[in-house]
Specification:
By secondary structure, this protein is α+β, with helices and mostly antiparallel strands. 45% of the residues lie in helices and 12% in strands. The chain has 18 helices and 13 strands. A hairpin with a 2-residue loop joins strand 10 and strand 11 (347-350). Helix 2 packs across helix 5 (144-158) and helix 7 (265-287) packs antiparallel against helix 10 (370-385). The N and C termini lie far apart (108 Å).
Length: 550
């Protein structure tokens, strides 16, 4: 039977005046949103690092002079950096960038034979002109390959390269006994002023029009002992370049470049300091590598013994006798040491007395951590400059075939990019000006005359610039790989010839001349492999292949 329900007793609570009997529970604070980007660590490493939004053009303007001065000083006083700059030149251009003229004259109804003949004539004339300092250089001192080398050095140190293209009149040419009028006058980027006047359109020495196109370049050059400021036009009325200025922009608004060493200047300065301190420490440790350990007392002990002379016992001053006995013992040791001698090279250590010990010490510097840390810094600098670590340090101790291939594969696109962005535009600007003058003055014929050339100047001047091939770890394996690609029809002779730094048409022309020469001497085709030449040609199907499926 259920128990009868009873009324619930109302609770009695004693409440202090001005308060609530049952306060509302405290509301938990709302969770603050946390950024997914820039989430900091407990030590606030990001918060403690102050940074502002970059303005590339103004940053370059502010830092150009200091960066250029430091870069030039580092290169002038470091054999390693000087070697890195030389490596940049060697990788990018080798001995020279060879002209591979590619005139697009299909609209002029040229035959293939006419185009090939004109191409060979232009390339031959260009090589003769570009390697003659009297013809190509305004100063008459440098060849075009030397000018390109200097430009690459300026690119590494100053981040840009520049120069003017001038014309020497006929009277002056007769004076120097030269034919061509176009002359190159390369200059250092330090002569390009860094002044800015936006009302004039002058931005860091480059005068722009309303469309932000360069119109002139302002240079300050010393002439006759006086500094002269002069504006050089960017192009002539026909659109030909009168001044070349190449750099690797970091931003669309950039008008100047900055040293390629700028990102690693702090690293290089610390690396130099580490090397200098390590070397100085090692030299000092080598100089003081021989020591003598003696049981004789030090200067402090002698001073203590001297104070014993005042010591008295029972009114008798026995301290003087003790000090005299001690001095006598020391003098006896020195007298015995006078007859002995230890020599180290030109230096000698005298007075090796009884009880003394002579020790040699090896230099404790550099320690075991120096070399790995130094190599780490050098990897950073090699990566920034754009050369391989092994070429920067000449350290091939841990290199393998695979590592060398991967190293070259990763850095070679950087080299090709530098070639196409920096070296090739300089050569192309000079080549266009030279070819235009040569056609106008009749040294190089052009089908249709000067009018046809000027109407199609851009197409006629189109060219490619071939540099040295990528280095290989094993030439035989690389050659076999090229043969496989040709055999599998995944490549062409033009691609493989360009990959090793040669013009395919030049190779075809040279092979044709060689075959004619050998056959004229009844020696057969020199390009048939020796094994096949000895065997019966009719028995070898490779000499007379039957095409399969066309």
């Amino acid at each position: 039977m259920a128990e009868p329900m009873t009324a619930m007793a109302k609770p009695r609570v004693r409440v202090k005046a001005g308060s609530m009997a049952f306060p509302v529970a405290a509301v938990a604070p709302a969770a603050r949103p946390t950024m997914r980007y820039l989430r900091d660590t407990g030590s606030a490493v990001l918060t403690s690092r102050w940074a502002s939004l970059p303005d590339s053009r103004r940053d370059i303007q502010w830092a150009w002079d200091r960066a250029a001065a430091l870069a030039a000083d580092f290169i002038h006083n470091s054999g390693r950096l000087k070697g890195a700059v030389d490596q940049v030149k060697a990788d990018t251009v080798g001995t020279e960038l060879k002209l591979n003229a590619q005139p697009d004259v299909d609209a002029l109804n040229w035959s293939a034979a006419e185009r090939s003949e004109w191409k060979r004539l232009v390339e031959r004339e260009w090589r003769q002109w570009s390697w003659n300092p009297s013809e190509c250089d305004h100063r008459g001192k440098f060849t075009i390959p030397q000018i390109v080398d200097m430009s690459l050095g300026h690119h590494v140190a100053f981040g840009e390269a520049c120069g003017a293209l001038g014309y020497m009149p006929a009277a002056t040419r007769r004076r120097y006994n030269i034919r061509t009028g176009i002359k190159v006058s390369a200059t250092s980027p330090i002569h390009l002023v860094r002044d800015t006047n936006e009302f004039e359109g002058l931005l860091q020495g480059v005068i722009h029009d309303e469309n932000d196109r360069p119109q002139a370049y302002r240079l300050k050059i010393e002439r006759g002992g006086l500094m002269e400021t002069r504006d050089y036009s960017a192009r002539d009325a026909f659109g030909s370049a009168l001044f070349y200025h190449v750099f690797d922009p970091k931003d669309p608004h950039d008008v100047r470049g900055i040293s390629e060493l700028a990102p690693v200047m702090k690293t290089w300065a610390m690396s130099e300091k580490l090397d200098d301190a390590t070397l100085q420490t090692a030299v000092l440790q080598t100089v003081f590598a021989a020591t003598i350990t003696s049981p004789e007392p030090s200067e402090a002990a002698f001073q203590a013994i001297e104070s014993l002379s005042e010591f008295e016992i029972g009114g008798e001053r026995i301290g003087e006798a003790l000090a005299a006995d001690f001095y006598g013992a020391v003098m006896a040791r020195l007298d015995a040491a006078r007859g002995s001698r230890v020599s180290i090279g030109d230096s000698q250590v005298n007075h090796l007395g009884p009880g003394e010990k002579f020790d040699f010490h090896t230099a404790a510097t550099p320690g075991e951590r120096y070399l790995p840390f130094s190599m780490h810094l050098q990897r950073i600098m090699a990566r920034c400059i754009g050369v391989t670590f092994s070429s920067f340090t000449l350290d091939h101790s841990n290199a393998t075939y695979s590592s060398v291939r991967m190293e070259n594969a990763s850095i070679w696109p950087v080299v090709m990019r530098r070639r196409e962005r920096i070296a090739a535009p300089i050569c192309q600007a000079i080549y266009e000006a030279w070819l235009t003058e040569s056609v106008i003055e009749g040294r190089i014929p052009f089908k249709g005359g000067v009018a046809a050339f000027m109407s199609n100047r851009e197409k006629a001047c189109w060219a490619e610039w071939v540099g040295p091939p990528a280095p290989t770890a094993d030439d035989l394996k690389s050659a076999k790989a090229a043969t496989e690609r040709l055999g599998n029809r995944t490549s062409s002779l033009a691609i493989e010839s360009t990959a090793v730094g040669y013009d395919p048409q030049d190779i075809a022309q040279m092979r044709s001349e060689d075959i004619k020469l050998y056959q004229g001497l009844d020696m057969g085709d020199p390009y048939i492999p020796a094994k096949l030449a000895v065997a019966d040609p009719s028995a070898d199907p490779a000499l007379d292949p039957v095409p399969a499926n066309g």
